[in-house]
Design brief:
The protein is an alpha/beta fold. The chain has one domain: Rossmann fold (3-Layer(aba) Sandwich). It is built from ten helices and ten strands. The strands form three sheets. It has a four-stranded mixed beta sheet with strand order 7-6-10-9. The chain has a three-stranded parallel beta sheet with strand order 1-2-3. Strand 6 and strand 7 form a beta hairpin. Helix 7 crosses helix 8. The longest helix is centred in the N-terminal third of the chain and has 17 residues. The chain is globular. Belongs to the class-I aminoacyl-tRNA synthetase family. InterPro entries: aa-tRNA-synth_I_CS (IPR001412), Glu/Gln-tRNA-synth (IPR000924), Glu/Gln-tRNA-synth_Ib_cat-dom (IPR020058), GluQ/Sye (IPR049940), Rossmann-like_a/b/a_fold (IPR014729). Keywords: Aminoacyl-tRNA synthetase, ATP-binding, Ligase, Metal-binding, Nucleotide-binding, Protein biosynthesis, Zinc. This is Glutamate--tRNA ligase. GO terms for molecular function: ligase activity.
């Protein structure tokens, strides 16, 4: 099957490579972000392509203007330069809503009125009765499909009552709707060589595609953004590798081009744990305050 931007034998068309670094402004950048940003810049230079900056701020409750400013300061300190036009997801909710509506019109997503507590209780009850409770790649129990079986009238009545809800992908229906199983193109950062592997989106079950609070999710927003920005190569951490299975399916469902992917190793602390904002890992601003230079960071990370 031939897709936009690619030839049927897996070679990219003669288009300029486009990469992106896409942090979330819910905290300060740390060494893990620095590594990913520098690697994106290195690969973009090697491929003779462009590098874009995207601010992934759909989490309106946790995103802060000072964190956006901090991201720009940190990247400038590292010596990284991006094109002036920076895409901010919070300014493009209509794009994601249009994708949501396209999926809904085909009956591929459904409203889910279950709270996290209700889902956890149902899964716990199944486990207590000895029933196997499968989990997704992140370790969370797969949604048992409760609301998938609501009639249109029942779901409409719940929505008209204003009951909070997410929208979930009807995974069985989605897989039936594609003419060919989704695939993932992986590329080598050393020589750009491509390999194609089968995607396994079913391991995510009926994943949340639209959150309660905004008309999208990370998964839906990122595939829309990559297509709208013409991203040809995605370079991100191994913690997002499994999500690519779901992204490949969404790209197929929405008729979007599929970038080539490389998932790099994560930077870890002394205990072998990955660096994370949620764990208050030392930020680049903290390092700067301790007298660490950008050259020190670049050299220490292999750049």
């Amino acid at each position: 099957m031939e897709e936009e931007g690619w030839l049927s034998d897996g070679r990219m068309r003669a288009n300029e490579p486009v990469l992106r670094f896409a942090p979330s402004p819910n905290g300060r950048l740390h060494l893990g972000h620095a590594y990913s940003a520098l690697l994106n810049a290195h690969i973009a230079e090697r491929l003779g392509g462009r590098l874009l900056l995207r601010i992934e701020d759909i989490d309106l409750g946790r995103s802060r203007p000072e964190f956006v400013a901090g991201i720009l300061t940190d990247l400038d300190w590292l010596g990284l330069r991006f094109e002036a036009l920076v895409r901010r997801q919070s300014e493009h909710f209509p794009d994601y809503a249009a994708a949501r509506d396209a999926l809904a019109a085909r009956g591929l997503i459904y409203p889910c009125f279950c709270s996290r507590g209700q889902i956890a209780a149902k899964v716990a009850a199944r486990a207590a009765s000895g029933e196997w409770a499968p989990r997704d790649p992140d370790g969370a129990p797969l949604y048992p499909g409760t609301c998938r079986h609501l009639s249109n009238d029942e779901a409409t009545a719940c929505r008209e009552r204003g009951e909070p809800h997410t929208w979930r992908l009807d995974m069985p229906a989605a897989l039936r709707s594609v003419s060919e199983p989704p695939v993932i193109r992986r590329f080598s950062p050393d020589d750009g060589a491509l390999e194609t592997v089968a995607a396994a989106p079913s391991r995510w079950g009926d994943a949340v595609i639209v959150r309660r609070d905004v008309p999208t999710s990370y998964h839906l927003a990122v595939v829309c953004d990559d297509a709208l920005q013409g991203i040809t190569h995605v370079v991100r951490g191994q913690d997002l590798e499994a999500a690519t299975d779901l992204h490949a399916l969404l790209q197929r469902l929405l008729g979007l081009p599929s970038p080539a992917y490389h998932h790099h190793a994560l930077i870890r602390d002394e205990d072998g744990e990955k660096l994370a904002k949620s764990k208050s890992s030392e930020s680049l601003a903290d390092l700067r305050a301790r007298g660490i230079t950008a050259e020190d960071v670049r050299t220490g990370l292999g750049f």
